[in-house]
Automatic annotation (TrEMBL), chains A, B:
The keyword Endoplasmic reticulum does not apply. In the N-terminal section; belongs to the acetate CoA ligase alpha subunit family. It comes from the Bacteria. It comes from Schaedlerella arabinosiphila. This is CoA-binding protein.
Length: 701, 701
């Protein structure tokens, strides 16, 4: 969809222009307050000849110009004729504030929406909304926004798209935020969220894309956009409702978005290096951080510099709580700092600079330079509350010191951010000054360090490790059926998952012969896709050691099953070597109806659920991506050899994840779920063992 | 220590009064800006006759009045003679800003400090500092503070004590904070932190005590104060440095505080219902919340009301992340809300009120009343960003609606707080108005819900369940020694821990006889306090089933041990019944040198460490406190019977915790540590089994 006339119009008509409060008045006020070149902006209102002393046309048709964009401030019932009138003037975009569409939840509203979308398609008009607050294009000075804001400079490089008008307003109100575009997309029924995303990814003036989403509609375009953003090194920051079940219900009811699971959504973001924000404040602060620092840190190590011991301790503690890495300073750094600091101070990271450095910009600059030059440091965090009511001259010396270092270092300057220790007190003059030299002020520590950990995870050179494939299902399955254990294992084996040689026997004699030809003790299990809990029905006998016992076991299993599951379809009895025990893991696939197959791995037993220690990642995945999944687990330390324990075969586990991912991707349209539970992981070099497996498929369509 | 003359002086002398910048000038400016009654405040400076047009005395002796408090703005070397001069005028308190004491880390500084403290003791003068920023007593209008602040009303009910001047300033700068006292205690070498705490707990004007601590010095007084605060229902909010190892090092180096472990400190706070803040912003916001709401919530259920779907989803999601309980609304609440809301809206908790209720104070009040009247709701959270630059009339209607409900409800009004979704944009007029009717504005969601979870945990009627005992060690132990397994078990058994009947045998024949008289298979283990890892030296043989095998086992164990540990002192061989396996837990005691014995419990195996799932609580403890410990564990769901699994004997486990706590308290001066690992917990009604135990004691002193 071409959004040029909607988002970058050369001319526009405000229909329903007015001096009153409300959409018409607010749009006019915004335009007159902000827009420099009014020459091709036309006000339209049949009841007025002027609005704010500017000529007002009785209708669109009366305007002596072509019109790219209609800004419709009039009620729902007027919209369709206005679109038709606009189309005759060459209109290719329309912003529609009116409500009375799908959001009402009524039949009438849905009918109105359908008619609107059909008409827009017919006339080839890109519709923003309906029921939206409009947008501002700061790059080209276009103001199609329906809430009045105080005048100040807001032009910058953050492109915002929000499905909530209220959240959009809050972002605009945040004093440090600077935007390329601010789009309050409302119902997003004409032009969809993914279309705006695509537009911003391709927009040269947008550096950071900042999203509030209630759900994804066009999954393919969503993924294509994330992929392109990753390739172009533009960062996408996403706040999405629906992490909790209550949040999901609200997001769904609010815009009727169909929604995959939140875990799948998060896995997708992870693959493409997009950053998830947990609330609006974090979305704002993360966008501000990324938009302000001249470049991303080159490595994930942080240095923390503070003026007091209390503040230094907070940075140490809250950093630690959030998994922040503070590398120890190098010898040279320590030597330089010792010369600058008073005798009693011990240089360390985080660093207590002591008050003695607070009142001298040159000394401050020298200390900052020493810390920045440390080879382990990727970014410098300056802990400082920009006090407002309390006279504190340190703020001046600190600012001058930072500025000096930034000027001296030029291109080689590492990114710097300021972390205040209290919010809601902030010296606005210095906030602007710091912003002006590329130093963002973050929220207080609990937000700041959480964000910085996400930044540290984000700066990996390529999250997907070159694998940009995603296996989106073409169709959604409905009814499903299970494969038997043996069938499941054969499917996996075909994709490279190591499965021990097994046999299915259909008579007691065959069981005896098989036992005699197979080595070692065997597990015998009823082989039937109809019986999921084999032990519960007497369908499993373990440690069968010879032919005659195998014969007896066969008979007993068949008797038990016939008694307990008379209707089950029986393939026979599966005879498998008893696996030696290893570290029990669970490996699975859940094929998200919206986002496709997601591979899951975690420690076995109850621990995945009890401690929520599982990693989820989209299929297909490469070996390095598999290793990243494992590293994400708390249980990874067990795999590595915990407390002098054995080191497990991480390589074989990664290969198994890759194989499972391949299988899942190849079966994206038919697979519902897959479980390998348990998967035994053996000591390094000894591989893995699939003890049991279950595949559930959709009926072919 | 009597702090009356220091904290509530009737007269005071500012020595070093001046018009310049610096301590002397800033103190004078503060006094002249803020103090109403200057009649008994005297400026002293031999070089001046007036300061800011006010009479200035050449010396303390020249003042024609008794002096309660000296405010000493002069350098370190002048201090001792001034104290002597003041003492002759009846002085009982002194604020000392000068540095040059222990904080320098030099011998000279330490000597100066020692002399100062000796002199103060000799003269019976309570010294604040040295190297402090002083204090303000808002109740009695006393300004002994050395940083200039903009004039505004700050009088309220939060008593602040901070070991960091910078953090103290940040709290004062926070626009909503209202204080009874604000004490920047500096080195806190004269009057200690615990003395100030005691003062504030006993102060009738202080409702909330807000602390920044680097460490505890007077543990007994610290605990006595926490106990008294709990009994008086005053809330203590504590920010303490040293959660991480880096933070501990910083806190220790900064004020030389001796420090128990952070886990012990946190356990103490938990026992007495004090609230721990994780950073300064949380300390401020929690203090503001507690100081502003007219009463604490009566139950831990929250209702969330918001004006947009996006904001409602954030409250649902971030609430869920933080373990907030949003009870489902009762039928009656839903009925009332359905009448108020538009047709398409679904009432729910969190509630999306939709924009339709935002512009009518009466409707708003009705919705708020309906929600507040819900029996499951203890507190109402109003999600709303107080936009500043964006014109939003909703703020007015919301405020009027809230005010109406508060007036109508009177005493029966449940507490209300506002949660904004973005920080650093706040309408100051409405912030003050809301504060004025008892409605605090919290920080954005990641802080707010974390705090509210702590509030919900805090409102339990009695955290200690009536047990206010703490077992503080009188002396700190140095060298330590281990008890053998059998000795350890006997110690525990004496305090009621169930230990199976065991015997120690000293010959092969005795082993045979014992095996024949004891029932079932036995575990035989070398019995020696010198051998901690018995299996590693061949000192353990399990499943010994009869007398002759016991004989052989005895001989083999002795041979192994003599070969592998020739120097170990051997008591014999311990013969114990083989315990049936159960759920493996770890139970232990660590006797914190500062805070006394702490009982620890967690799931066995590697999970305590890997998933940090352990509960720590001071000894002695009651059975309900023990149950609270278990409930704190993620693993509690396993004890309860996870996913249809067996329910374990939680009662017996609690009794074991109580018994271990009794043992630890009784041995507070001699116990170093205790481990029961593993403790088998059996299905409900079947008790617990101590499989192995180790006690390490200090040498008697």
């Amino acid at each position: 969809m071409d959004l040029t006339k909607l988002m970058k119009p050369r001319s526009m008509a405000v229909v329903g222009a007015s001096e009153k409060e409300g959409f018409g008045g607010d749009v006019c006020r915004n335009i007159l307050t902000y827009t420099k070149d009014l020459s091709r902006i036309y006000f339209v209102n049949p009841k007025r000849t002027t609005v704010f002393e500017r000529q007002c046309f009785p209708s669109i048709s009366d305007i002596p110009d072509e019109i790219d964009l209609l800004i419709l401030c009039t009620p729902q019932k007027t919209i369709l004729p206005l679109l038709e009138e606009g189309a005759k003037k060459g209109c290719g975009g329309a912003v529609i504030y009116a409500s009375g569409y799908g959001e009402t939840g009524t039949d009438e509203g849905r009918r109105n929406e359908k008619e609107l979308l059909e008409k827009a398609r017919e006339l080839n008009i890109a519709v923003m909304g309906p029921n939206c607050a409009g947008y501002i294009n700061y790059v080209d000075d276009i103001h199609a926004f329906a809430f009045v804001s105080e005048k100040r400079e807001r032009k910058g490089n953050v492109g915002v798209i929000s499905q909530s008008g209220q959240l959009c307003l809050s972002m605009m109100d945040s004093p440090s935020m600077r935007f390329s575009y601010n789009i309050s997309a409302g119902n997003a029924k004409g032009v969809q969220m993914e279309d705006y995303m695509e537009f911003l990814v391709n927009d040269k003036d947008t550096k950071v894309i900042s999203l509030y989403l209630e759900g994804v509609k066009n999954v393919k375009k969503f993924i294509d956009t994330l992929r392109k953003a990753a390739q172009m090194k533009k960062t996408v920051v996403v706040l999405k409702a629906g992490r909790s079940s209550k949040g999901q219900a609200i997001a769904a009811s609010h815009t009727g978005s169909m929604s995959g699971t939140d875990a799948s959504f998060e896995a997708l973001l992870k693959k493409f290096g997009a950053i998830r924000a947990d609330d609006l404040e974090e979305l704002i602060a993360m966008s501000l951080l990324l938009s302000t620092i001249p470049k991303l840190p080159q490595r994930p190590g942080f240095a923390s510099m503070n003026l007091s011991g209390g503040e230094t301790a907070i940075c140490a503690d809250v950093g630690w709580l959030n998994g922040i890495s503070y590398p120890d300073f190098a010898e040279e750094t320590l030597r330089a700092l010792k010369e600058l600091l008073p005798d009693y101070a011990t240089p360390n990271n985080p660093l207590d600079m002591t008050a003695s450095l607070s009142y001298d910009a040159d000394l401050y600059a020298q200390a900052l330079t020493a810390v920045m030059d440390d080879p382990g440091v990727g970014m410098v965090l300056i802990g400082y509350t920009l006090l407002y009511e309390i006279a504190d001259p340190a703020i001046h010396y600190m600012y001058e010191g930072i500025k000096k270092v930034i000027q001296e270092k030029g291109q080689s300057c590492k990114p710097i951010a300021v972390i205040p220790f209290a919010e809601n007190t902030r010296n606005p003059e210095y906030q602007e000054k710091l912003l002006g030299i590329g130093v963002p002020i973050l929220p207080p520590p609990l937000y700041a360090f959480r964000m910085l950990k996400k930044l540290a995870d984000h700066i990996k050179p390529d999250h997907a490790r070159g694998n940009y494939d995603i296996a989106l299902p073409e169709t959604a399955g409905k009814t499903s059926y299970a494969l038997s254990e043996h069938e499941s294992k054969l499917c996996l084996e075909a994709f490279g998952v190591p499965v021990a040689a097994e046999r299915v026997v259909t008579s007691a004699d065959e069981a005896r012969d098989a036992a005699e030809s197979m080595n070692g003790p065997l597990a015998m299990k009823i082989e039937s896709a109809d019986i999921l809990h084999k032990s519960d029905v007497g369908g499993v006998i373990l440690n069968v050691s010879d032919g005659s016992k195998a014969r007896e076991a066969y008979i007993r299993i068949m008797e038990n099953v016939k008694k307990n599951c008379p209707d089950a379809r029986i393939n026979g009895v599966l005879m498998a070597p008893m696996l030696k025990p290893g570290l029990e893991m669970i490996l699975g696939v859940n094929n998200d109806p919206q986002f496709g197959p997601m591979v899951m791995v975690g420690l076995g037993g109850v621990f995945v659920e009890l401690f929520r220690d599982a990693a989820v990642y989209p299929a297909p995945l490469g070996k390095e991506e598999a290793l990243d999944m494992l590293r994400f687990l708390k249980a990874y330390r067990m795999l590595e050899g915990y407390r002098g324990g054995v080191r497990y075969d991480i390589d074989a586990l990664c290969e198994t994840l890759v194989s499972v991912g391949k299988f899942a991707a190849a079966n994206k349209d038919t697979l519902k779920e897959l479980d390998i539970n348990p998967l035994f992981v053996y000591p390094e070099g000894e591989g893995v063992g699939v003890a049991d497996s279950l595949i559930i498929k959709y009926m072919e369509r």
